Amino acid sequence: MTILVTGGLGYIGSHTVVELLQNGFQVIIVDDMSNSEKFILDNIEKVAGKRPVFFPFDLRRKELLAQVFDAYEIDGCINFAAFKAVGESQEKPLDYYENNLFSLINILQEFKNRNISNFIFSSSCTVYGQADQQPIDEDTPLKTPESSYGKTKQMGEEILKDFATAYKKKVSLLRYFNPIGSHPSALLGELPIGIPNNLVPYVTQTASGIREQLSIWGNDYDTPDGTAVRDYIYVVDLAKAHVKALQKLMAETSETVIDIYNLGTGKGSSVLEVVESFERANDVKVPYKICDRRDGDITVAYANADKAERELGWKAETSLDEALRTTWEWQKYLESRK
After folding, report:
1. Does the annotation count 149 as an active-site position?
2. Could you tell me the sign of the dihedral formed by the alpha carbons of 288, 289, 295, 299, in that order?
3. Residues of the signal sequence (predicted)?
């Protein structure tokens, strides 16, 4: 079975490609390299023992995408290709709408024209906005997200629901909470370009001396220690869920399937708790400063992932300390490459 993985050299994408290869799938990656580097392809091969096919182009290039579908018999797609920084999406909303939605539609047009099914969408817990109750399950009402990034994910889900219904396709919408950590080999991990937008790479860069201190965006939230609370899930656990979701889709006998799953640990951790966990796991100190709240951020979000355990046989297994230990190993690997 041949799976197209868009954004497959990115953070979650690269880990998922490894899991797919190790489970016997053939993989074709399309990635425009806007948030990755070529050495990740080599490292995927080192970890998985197989090298995926790779095409470096922007998915908004319809003619190049069509050539990939002409050349290979594709059985399904996992779509990671998207801009993903919450703060940046507030500053550049049109860039986010164009990139995240046009690329998705172009792939779906190929699926429709060539009668292909089995589509997995990299969604996000941001589709819930600031939920009224915690933990968040799949029946929690969706609210207008706080950020343009979140809005593109919510719009993407609606596009896919209409796509599946109108054309009798099988789709799975995977709503991630906050992925962290790196592959146990320390050969794959999060590779932010410039100043990190996500908490954990900012923590590791601060601990290594690249950043002078960590900026904590707000300590006046309605949480036990005043800092925002999120559900931090180990990236390898998350990657494995994609394989489970794909296998379920492929086994479905119904023509039209719309699966929706939360992927998280079921436990919320505050920003300060993450910092303390990182320091404990790696025996290093992380200097930080408290800043004003960041536009687009919500107060609390953590998952009820019981549905994924019940229907996919999947659950998060890795502790916060262990996930943060692997992150530090990845940071040391990156330093060794310089």
Report:
1. yes
2. positive
3. none
- The H or E element that residue 229 is part of is strand 229-230
* The model's pTM: 0.96
136 part of a folded domain? yes
Cβ–Cβ < 8 Å for 221, 295? no
d(CA 230, CA 299): 8
pLDDT at residue 338, as a whole number: 80
Q: Where are the alpha helices (DSSP H) in the chain?
A: 11-22, 39-48, 62-71, 86-91, 93-97, 103-114, 148-167, 199-207, 235-251, 271-282, 306-312, 320-336
Q: What secondary structure, in 3-state letters, does 273-298 show?
A: HHHHHHHHHHCCCCCEEEECCCCCCC
Task: Report the domain count for the chain.
Answer: 1
Distance CA 64, CA 59 (A): 8
Residue 118 sits in a domain whose CATH number is 3.40.50.720
Residue the block writes with tokens 């990939």: 68
Residue 199 structure tokens: 């908490």
Does the structure show a pLDDT above 90 at 86?
Answer: no
Does the residue 213 lie in any domain?
Answer: no
Residue 248 belongs to a domain: yes
- End-to-end Cα separation, the chain, in angstroms: 38
Query: What is the rounded average pLDDT of the residues 193-211?
Result: 91
149, 176, 221, 234: which one is catalytic? 149
Per the document, the length of the chain is 338
Q: What is the pLDDT of residue 147?
A: 87
Q: Determine, yes or no, domain membership for 12.
A: yes
For residue 41, the enclosing domain spans: 2-177+234-263
